[in-house]
Amino acid sequence: MKKVKFDKKMIFWGVALLVVMLIFNIVYWHNRALKDGYYYIDIKGNIVSGRYEQTGGFRDGIAVYSEKKGDLEEHFCIDTDFKVLGDKITDWKKETFCIYDGEIYFSVMKEESIDLMDKGRNTILSIPYVTKDISDIKCVVGEVGANGLFAIKDFQSGKWGYMDLGGNMVIVPQFSTAGKFNEDNVAVVSIQGGMDGVIDSKGNYKIEPSFLDIELYGSGIAIARKTEDEAAQFIDLDGNVLSDKQFDYYAGDKSASEGFIPVKKYNRFMRDIYGYVDLKMNYLIEPCEPRYADADDFSHGMAVVTNADGLQGYVDTTGKEVIPCQYEYAGDFGEYDLAAVKINGKMGLIRKDGSFFVNPDYDTLGAFSSGYSVVYLHKGQKVKLCK
């Protein structure tokens, strides 16, 4: 047989070409998405997780991602190390989680019980409960409040009471509805007939159930109204009216964060107009034309406001509109003093001076939470930080 001779130069250049191609691929794919999907990034823009079909941002160190298995959608909880916590969740409507005293608690509806679990999804309390035909855990159990009590519905009487983390019924079931205890150690409850009152952690009334609606704002302040046809007023936890200013009542997650409360002008026949008052009920921004069609809580010294055209921007604690209403969506400022915004259908991150930290080039991009942001990347796409 004839021996095959290899040209040393040919071997050298072949190996060199392979090395160059390998380096090129490593450089090109460094911090780029291998496939379309959701990824977590750190503050330097580095991809720090694998790909997810669907996932959301972290909340108190927990995130939930989803995978499709045939016709079923399975959910999994992960921590900030991207480790799966416990078993899969096939029906997220039968679970909820909350924070108490810095710890995470899951409420899980089983067939014959409601189980309270810790962050590792280990059962710490199992409450015997008939859960047949109940589709949503929020129908029968509430989040753990600031005092360690959570609302639970007695399935025989249909009344609500409060239980502690040891499984002791601290306030016997007696209310038609029962809210979460806030940092003032009070909760809104209602009695038969739908009238609202406020109780303390022993079940004693701070405010007798004599209002149609009450919403707690923290800092010893609530907003209440007697009937649907009258304005709402701010009251203290003894039921005393704090000022003669009148507002439209609305429920929601708006609060007295950073010393200011979003308020809606009392006007039954015109569009909603929002402003802000401080804790002494003095106007920071008076709700009047042509100001804002919506206003959110303050976060990191800034609050999202919405103009009459539906565009969003930011005001500071002096009431000045420091970032104009120009975004289709604007999120709260949070970690690293960054906020997620949408403009021309794409998401980016801005600094408090309105400059972009990440240009709006992404289908989905969330604010940072627990040190990470979640972003949807197409194959080969990476996150580029602005200078």
Principal-axes shape call: flat
Mean pLDDT: 90
CA radius of gyration: 27 Å
| Major sheet | 4 strands, antiparallel
Q: Give start-end ranges of low-pLDDT stretches.
A: none
Strand order of the largest sheet: 2-3-4-5
Number of helical runs?
1
End-to-end gap: 65 Å
**Helix/strand/pairing class, anyone?**
mainly beta
Percent in helix:
under 10%
Beta-strand content: 35-45%
Describe the structure.
With 387 residues, the chain is mainly β. The protein contains 1 helix and 32 strands. The chain has one helix spanning 8-29, and strands spanning 37-41, 54-55, 63-69, 72-78, 84-89, 95-100, 103-109, 113-117, 123-128, 150-153, 160-163, 169-175, 177-178, 186-190, 196-200, 205-211, 213-218, 221-225, 233-236, 247-248, 260-265, 274-278, 283-285, 294-299, 302-306, 312-316, 321-327, 329-330, 339-343, 346-350, 356-362, 373-377. The strands form 9 sheets. Strands 2-3-4-5 form a 4-stranded antiparallel β-sheet, with no helix packed on it. A 4-stranded antiparallel β-sheet has the order 6-7-8-9, with no helix packed on it. A 4-stranded antiparallel β-sheet has the order 13-14-15-16, with no helix packed on it. A hairpin with a 7-residue loop joins strand 2 and strand 3 (63-69). The chain is flat, with a radius of gyration of 27 Å. The termini are far apart.
Which characteristics define this entry?
single chain, 387 residues, mainly beta, four-stranded antiparallel β-sheet, 1 helix, flat
Give the secondary structure arrangement, pairings included.
Layout: H1 8-29, E1 37-41, E2 54-55, E3 63-69, E4 72-78, E5 84-89, E6 95-100, E7 103-109, E8 113-117, E9 123-128, E10 150-153, E11 160-163, E12 169-175, E13 177-178, E14 186-190, E15 196-200, E16 205-211, E17 213-218, E18 221-225, E19 233-236, E20 247-248, E21 260-265, E22 274-278, E23 283-285, E24 294-299, E25 302-306, E26 312-316, E27 321-327, E28 329-330, E29 339-343, E30 346-350, E31 356-362, E32 373-377
Antiparallel strand pairs: 1-32, 2-3, 3-4, 4-5, 6-7, 7-8, 8-9, 10-11, 11-12, 13-14, 14-15, 15-16, 17-18, 18-19, 20-21, 21-22, 22-23, 24-25, 25-26, 26-27, 28-29, 29-30, 30-31
